[in-house]
Amino acid sequence: MDTTQTLDVDATSVASDAKQYLTFLLDEAEYGVDILRVQEIKGWDTVTPLPNAPEYVRGVMNL
């Protein structure tokens, strides 16, 4: 086996050990979740306002 083949095998080993994350921003802070734990990505939907809720609560939505 020549040097090039050895380097290719090592690069493949590193790539298979790499993890993937779903990242998102929340109030200017970045968070990440292991992609294997993500079950669904849902877009923004209409929100039902809640009476007497604090100002920072927009409401609720069905998931």
Structure, explained:
- The structure is a single chain.
- The chain has a domain at 3-36.
- 24% of the residues lie in helices and 19% in strands.
- The chain has one helix at residues 3-17; strands at 21-26, 29-34.
- Strand 1 and strand 2 (29-34) form a beta hairpin.
- The termini are far apart.
- It holds the Pfam family CheW.
Question: Top keywords for this entry?
Answer:
1 helix, 63 residues, two-stranded antiparallel ribbon, CheW-lke_dom
Question: What is the topology?
Answer:
Elements: H1 3-17, E1 21-26, E2 29-34
Antiparallel strand pairs: 1-2
Organism: Tectimicrobiota bacterium
Pfam families: CheW
Keywords: Cytoplasm
Structural class computed from helices and strand pairing: alpha+beta
User: Using only CA atoms, what is the Rg?
Assistant: 22 Å
Strand order of the largest sheet: 1-2
Report the helical percentage.
Answer: 10-25%
The amount of beta strand, in percent, is 15-25%
Report the strand count: 2
H/E series: HEE
| Unreliable stretches | none
Described by strand count, sense and barrel closure, the largest sheet is: 2 strands, antiparallel
Tally of DSSP helical segments: 1
Mean pLDDT, rounded to whole units? 83
Taking the alpha carbons of the first and last residues, their distance comes to: 54 Å
Overall form: elongated
